[in-house]
Design a protein that fits this description.
about 80% helix; 19 helices; Growth Hormone, Chain: A; mainly alpha; about 400 residues
C-alpha cells in the first residue's frame, strides 16, 4: 500500500463519515415542518425514523462481516451509491409510509459505513488517534451541515430538496470512488500499516464487556440528544424560527466535530482510557444543566455537552481496535454499532415518549446525565494500559 493510496482512503473515509451523519439530522430539522405537510403530530412524525435507526445499528455486524470476509472497498462503493439513492427517495416520498420506507433504506445502507469505513481507516493509518480525530471532524460536520442545509432549503425551495441535493452528492461521490478503485488509486487493505501489540485473551474479554456497557450508554446520549436539541431550541430560544434553530444546531455540532482533532491527538499522546473516562465525566453536570437552561446559555452548554460526548469517540475507537483481533475488526465495529446506533437508537422513541409523558425535556436530560455517569464508572474498569502501548505513547510524546 502506498502513501498516496492511504491518503485517498482517508479522504473517502472522511467524506463517507460526513454522509453517514447527514441524512438523519436533516430529518430532525424537517420534522419541525412535516406535521403540517403530513397532517400528523410532531411525536408521530419523529417516529417515522425509528425503523431506519434500528437498521442503522442492527445491520452493522453483517456489514462489518462482509467487509472482513469480502471487501471493504466493495462495501464502501455499495454504501455511497445505496445511501445516495435512499436520500433521494426520502425527498420524493409522498406520504408517511413511503417516507418511513425511504428512511429505512437510509438506515440499511448507512449501516455499512461505521463498521467498514472505520476499520478500513484504522488499517490504513499510522497515527490512529490523529486519523480518527480528523475523521471525527467530518462526522461532526455532518449534523452541522445538515442543519444549515435543511434550514436553508426549507426557507427557499422546500424540505424535499434538503434530502434530494445531498442524495445526489452522495451518489456522485460513489461514482468517483468506483473510478478511483478501478484505477488503483484506492486499494483493499487487510492488514494494519502500523500493527498494535496483541492483547491477552483476558484483557480482550474484560474490555469487550466494559466497552459494551459504555458504548450503549454513550450511544444513547448521542441518539437522544440529536433529535431533542432542535425542538429544545425551538421552545427555549424565543421566536427564532427554523433558521434560528438550524443555526444553533449547526454551531453545536460544528464545535463538537472540530473538537475531535484535539481528542484524537490526546488519545494518541495520553492513555485512551484516561481520555475516555474524562470525556464522560464532564458530560454529567452539563447534561443535567440542559434540563433547566434557556436562551444563549442553553446553546453554549449544549455545545459543551455534545463536545464531551463526541470527544470520547476517538479514544473509544482506539480502545476497541486495540482489543479486537485485526482480522475481525470490521465485525467488532459492527457489534459496537449495534449498541451505539441500534439498541441505543431507541433514544428517539425515548425522546418522543418522555416528551409526550412529561410535556418537556427536563426528565430526559437528567436521565442522560445519569447515563454519562455510568460511562465514566464503567470505563474506569478497563484493563490497565499495556506496557508496550504505554512505552510507545511515551516515546511519541517525547519526540
Amino acid at each position: 500500500m502506498t502513501a498516496a493510496s492511504a491518503r485517498a482512503s482517508l479522504a473517502f473515509s472522511c467524506v463517507g463519515h460526513l454522509f453517514a451523519h447527514l441524512f438523519e439530522p436533516i430529518f430532525y430539522i424537517t420534522a419541525l415542518v412535516l406535521p403540517g405537510e403530513l397532517g400528523m403530530p410532531y411525536e408521530e412524525v419523529l417516529a417515522l425514523v425509528i425503523g431506519g435507526k434500528l437498521l442503522y445499528g442492527l445491520l452493522a455486524p453483517a456489514a462489518g462481516w462482509l467487509g472482513d470476509r469480502w471487501s471493504t472497498v466493495g462495501m464502501m462503493a455499495v454504501y455511497f451509491i445505496g445511501l445516495g439513492i435512499a436520500g433521494i427517495a426520502v425527498g420524493c416520498a409522498t406520504g408517511p409510509w413511503a417516507m418511513a420506507v425511504a428512511l429505512g433504506l437510509t438506515g440499511l445502507f448507512g449501516a455499512i459505513y461505521h463498521p467498514v469505513g472505520i476499520a478500513w481507516l484504522l488499517r490504513n493509518a499510522l497515527d490512529k488517534g490523529k486519523a480518527i480525530g480528523l475523521n471525527g471532524v467530518f462526522g461532526g460536520i455532518g449534523p452541522a451541515l445538515a442543519a444549515v442545509l435543511a434550514g436553508g432549503m426549507i426557507a427557499t425551495v422546500g424540505w424535499r430538496a434538503a434530502f434530494v441535493v445531498p442524495g445526489i452528492a452522495c451518489l456522485l461521490t460513489g461514482a468517483v470512488f468506483v473510478a478511483a478503485l478501478a484505477k488503483g488509486v484506492v486499494v483493499e487493505a487487510k492488514v494494519d500499516r502500523k500493527p498494535e501489540p496483541v492483547a491477552s485473551r483476558d484483557d480482550s474479554w474484560r474490555a469487550g464487556i466494559v466497552l459494551s456497557v459504555t458504548m450503549l450508554c454513550a450511544g444513547l446520549i448521542y441518539q437522544a440528544t440529536q433529535p431533542a436539541l432542535p425542538k429544545l431550541f425551538e421552545e427555549r430560544l424565543g421566536d427564532s424560527g427554523v433558521l434560528g434553530v438550524s443555526a444553533a444546531v449547526t454551531a453545536v455540532y460544528l464545535l463538537a466535530g472540530l473538537s475531535q482533532v484535539l481528542a484524537g491527538h490526546l488519545a494518541d499522546r495520553l492513555s485512551p482510557k484516561l481520555v475516555y473516562v474524562g470525556a464522560a465525566l464532564v458530560q454529567v453536570p452539563l447534561l443535567a444543566a440542559l434540563a433547566t437552561l434557556s436562551g444563549m446559555p442553553l446553546v453554549a452548554v449544549a455545545g459543551l455537552a455534545v463536545v464531551g460526548n463526541m470527544a470520547g469517540i476517538p479514544a473509544e475507537n482506539i480502545l476497541l481496535s486495540r482489543y479486537a483481533p485485526a482480522r475481525w475488526r470490521g465485525t467488532a465495529f459492527g457489534l459496537k454499532f449495534v449498541l451505539s446506533f441500534g439498541v441505543s437508537g431507541l433514544g428517539v422513541p425515548l425522546v418522543s415518549l418522555m416528551r409526550a409523558t412529561t410535556g418537556g425535556f427536563e426528565a430526559l436530560f437528567v436521565l442522560l446525565a445519569a447515563a454519562a455517569a455510568v460511562v465514566a464508572a464503567a470505563a474506569a474498569l478497563l484493563p490497565p494500559e499495556r506496557p508496550a502501548a504505554a512505552e510507545a505513547a511515551a516515546k511519541v510524546a517525547a519526540e
